[in-house]
Amino acid sequence: MSYDIEFNLGVRQLIEFTLESGDIDQRYKSSVRALEGTKIHQKLQKNFSKNENYISEERIETFEVVDGMKFKISGRVDGIWKEEEGIVIEEIKSTKSDLDEIDEKYNLHHWAQVKMYGYMYSKENKLDNIKIKLLYVNVETEETKSFLREYRFEKLKKFCDELLSKYAIWAKKIHKYKSIRDESLRNLDFIYPKYRKGQRNLMVGVYRSIEQKKNILVEAPTGIGKTISTLFPAIKSLSTMKLDKVFYVTAKGIVRKVAEDTLNELFDSGSRVKFLTLTAKDKVCINEETICNPEKCKYAKGHYDRVGEAREDILEHNFAITREKIVEYALKYNVCPFELQLDISLWVDIIIGDYNYIFDPKAYLRRFFEDDERQYVFLVDEVHNLIERSRNMYSFDIKKTSILEVRRVIGKYNKRVYSKISKLNEKMLEFRRELQEEDSLEKIIEVDIEALYYDFFNITIALDKWLQENRINKDYNIVLDFYFKCHDYLRLYEYFDDTYVSRVELEEKNELIYHCQCLDTSKILERMYERACSSVLFSATLKPMRYYKNLLGLNDGLHMQLDSPFDRENINVHVVNSISTYYKERRYYYSEVAKLINDMCKDSMGNYLVFLPSFEYIDELEAYLGKISHDIVIQNRGMKEDERAVFIESFKKINEERGKLGLAVIGGLFSEGVDFRGEELIGVMVVGVGMPKITYERNVLKEYYEEQYGAGFDYAYIYPGMNKVLQAGGRLIRTETDKGDLYLVDKRYGRVKYYDLLPKHWK
Q1: What are the E-state strand segments in 256-305?
Q2: Separation of CA 30 from chain center
Q3: Is the preceding omega at residue 720 within 30 degrees of 0, hence cis?
Q4: What secondary structure letter does DSSP report for 748?
Q5: What SS3 string covers 216-237?
Q6: Cβ(513)–Cβ(400) below 8 Å
Q7: What DSSP state is assigned to residue 378?
């Protein structure tokens, strides 16, 4: 008898799904397993391996048929002992708890996990009975405590069948949905009557890269329709290539909204693909304050007792699961919206979210990437942002004032922890003394990247127990935040290599800061792409391509560069290279820039947007503008979401008698990810070349890039700056019918190096 239905399941996934119950309590969960658990496991396993009868990290799998469904279940056994008395399957669990507090009923999930391994091994090796062992190890003392049980094969099989029978009820519903989805995708045609210029080539390139399990970097200028052109072949691949999931990630929320709208259009055309937009915890939380513990949050109390019903309801009745839907069902079932969306993420076809969910070591979705057999596709939009974002993800800094604050707080409760934090503070004082001895204008000294490792390590170990025992302490959150800061450093420690530098810097108000700067994440990103069978990375502006391939870790990947689909006659480009925006010279040209803006606005009462080098430049320029025929709207520092919306909305209301003049910062909120169509914008002026501010940190990058690529200044300053220019200028022409004037204002546009970086349709 053959079974067509097959589900791939990890042992942990099966147990968590079928045995979930209880509260959410995230006041503090020991991170020791993540930090030191692997090390203590390896140390024990290394010692055990001296015994020729011991096998460690054995991958194991089984195929089971339950209720007419076939399951492939896989996992990894910590240890197998082949003793004369029989086989012992061992599961090692690291803990910070006192071993005297641990008994056989300490964690039923642990027993369920090792029982499944016992069953799978017994079946594979045709054993009538087997022993299973839970071994707990305290990471501080390295003391161990174990519990041993013996089971008949029939009893373990019954346990496995009971779990799978419970899971099968859900699996049948998922299978039914996927059958409907696959049928809809087989019949799904492209949703528009014709392709734009370059669009079909883009879709074919994306589909083939997924088919060949390769990575591809694509420059797809505005107007090609890169969102639909990447999503359409990706969702078709869900069926044809049996993909498990597609991740659509980007840096900006407004771009995620475009992906949602595109998937809704596909639904209207017949697609039955389910998607979820992941929202950050603080933005989806229903409470006024985000406190994830059952004593303070009614949604955390008993969450796991109710989440199954909520999950089933929302998935059965929705294909588009946005923040609003998550909140609606969270209120209906009295569950945590953040945890509900994470639960649902396992069952949808497409996840839309921030770069963090794939690339950030602190925030990536571990539940998906611990199984190397899954088939995922990454669609990475606006990928030019990933270079800077990933450098920040893998860098670290800590202020001396935060060390003093937590030392003051903890001193009231625990002298042992106080002394360990004091040692860290003493190291910072030593750095300050070195700085004072240095005759340096920057007030910066370079230090050993591992100089503070043992301080951070000892503090996390010491705080671990305190945090478990003091959950209702009024200063709890201050201590917890500091703990996580130390933990961030230790998490990054495994990445430290010659692409890292560390320094101590004396900043304003005598603030001392320790920095760990990641200069190049290309090798790290390469490892991240391995989590997917194919990664499609794309943006409207990727010039020069070699720069992006190098820094995004895609030298071995495919690439594609497409031309703009718009008529060259739709854009009238004015290059003004008589004006300087160099910092030391710019004040001499404010009046000329103001006159240029006035002259531009005299041509029409339409809307114009001027991008300027900085907020300081905007402040200075305002005084020179004088009376102007347009209403002026200005981007301010630290604009909130509602203020951003007002700025954008002011351009949407067309006033034929009095146009709008917007003043914004190059590389800021409004220079990318914002659509102004038709009469909403008829002219854009970019003043400057987007050059990043010259800093010590940026110059360190320049030196590194010079050594690596022989183009330090270009890589550190020119290319990232000009990308901001291209993005800002790209706000002007968004559709086939848009027309307008683009002004590029800076003497450097007269130089070949800068001019060559402009798109062909701007020349």
Answers
A1: 275-277
A2: 23
A3: no
A4: G
A5: EEEECCCCCCHHHHHHHHHHHH
A6: yes
A7: E
Q: Which amino acid makes up residue 330?
A: A
Distance between CA atoms of 376 and 533, rounded to whole angstroms? 6
The DSSP letter of residue 469 is H
- Pairwise CA distance, residues 315 & 330, whole Å: 13
pLDDT band per the 50, 70, 90 thresholds, residue 340: very high
Task: Tell the burial category of 85 from Cβ atoms under 10 Å away from its Cβ (0-12, 13-18, 19+).
Answer: exposed
Number of H helices, E strands in the chain: 28, 24
In sequence order, which residues have a C-beta less than 8 Å from that of residue 538 and are 6 or more positions away? 217, 218, 219, 220, 226, 230, 379, 380, 381, 383
Alpha helix segments (H runs only) across 301-361: 303-317, 323-333, 337-345, 356-359
Distance CA 286, CA 555 (A): 44
- Write the CB contacts of 616 (distance below 8 Å, at least 6 apart in sequence): none
- Per-residue pLDDT of 357-380, as tens digits, reads 999 999 899 888 876 667 999 999
Mean pLDDT over each residue of the chain, to the nearest integer: 91
CA distance 674 to 645: 11
Q: How far is Cα 612 from Cα 670, in angstroms, rounded to an integer?
A: 12
Direct distance between the N- and C-terminal alpha carbons of the chain, in angstroms, rounded to an integer: 67
Q: Is 638 exposed, middle or buried (0-12, 13-18, 19+ CB in 10 A)?
A: exposed
Q: Which two tokens stand for residue 132?
A: 């299973």
Instruction: Report how far residue 571's alpha carbon sits from residue 604's, in angstroms, rounded to the nearest whole number.
Output: 16
Q: Are 229 and 220 in contact (CB under 8 A)?
A: yes
Separation of alpha carbons 170 and 181, rounded Å: 17
DSSP code for 665? E
> Looking at per-residue confidence, does 9 or 296 come out higher?
9
Residue labelled with tokens 């201590």: 479
Instruction: State the pLDDT confidence band at 277, using cuts at 50, 70 and 90.
Output: very high
Q: Tell me which H or E stretch contains 92.
A: strand 86-95
Q: Which residue, chain included where needed, has tokens 């007419």?
A: 68
Distance (Å) of CA 452 to CA 117, 204, 486, 649, 747: 41, 51, 10, 49, 47
Q: How far apart are CA 125 and CA 143, in angstroms?
A: 32
Contact, 387 vs 483, CB < 8 A? no
Which pLDDT band, with edges at 50, 70 and 90, does 3 fall under?
very low
The two three-digit tokens of residue 479, written as one number? 């201590």
- Closest C-alpha to 345, from 268, 244, 419, 215: 244
Q: Which residue carries 């009868």 as its tokens?
A: 53
pLDDT band at 25 (very low <50, low <70, confident <90, very high): low
Q: b vs e for 48-71, b when ≥16 Cβ sit within 10 Å of the residue's Cβ?
A: beeeeebebeeebbbebebeebeb
